[in-house]
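Subject: for your reference before the review

Hello V.,

The reviewers asked for a structural picture of the protein, and I figured it would be easier to keep everything in one thread rather than splitting it across files. Below is the amino acid sequence we used in the manuscript, unchanged from the supplementary table.
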Amino acid sequence: MDQLRRGFEHSLEFDRLENIRQIYAMEADAQAIATLYAWSERAAKPELWDAAGSIAHYEDIRTAFGDTLASTADLGLAGRAAFTAWYASDWRRESYYLSACSQYLDRLDAAHALQRYDPLPDGYFDDLCLLPDGTNYGCHLTPEIRGTWAIAD
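And here is what came back from the structure prediction:
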């Protein structure tokens, strides 16, 4: 919800592949922040941290976050590791790709609109990935968010 409050909304103003790139980034960020919250509550509610490591197709994100935090003690680096781990799963990329394409085409149909081919604006992702204290953890600097390698068309 924080992403939407800050203006990261899906739009038909941009190319379909840009829409998918946006969805990937938003989902990777949401998973990174959810993992951070599970970690931060692990003393009071260990079941949250345990659950983060037992959800099929997402356990690698908890591992990336936990391993990076253990070796660096840096929440920003751990968040970025969790973010980039999201992209490492062929299953996640394919599942979200199919869902995002379907949603995009459904929205075009409902709006009786033609597809646009505009890219997202330069710097669009600069402020997407914020830790709860407002610190930017730098996902906009990753090759995953900048590239289209994760999109199989």
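For the response letter, the relevant points are probably these. The chain is about 60% helix and 0% strand. The mean pLDDT is 94.

Happy to draft the paragraph if you're swamped.

O.
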